[in-house]
Design goal:
This protein has one helix and no strands. With 24 residues, the chain is mainly α. It is rod-shaped and about 35 Å long. The termini are far apart. 0% of the residues are buried.
Length: 24
Amino acid sequence: MQLFPADKWNKRRIHFLVDRLHTI
């Protein structure tokens, strides 16, 4: 189980979603 990479991916995904929402 790699919790660190998963957390990093989650943060990136959240950041991407937030940026996308701001773009719309």
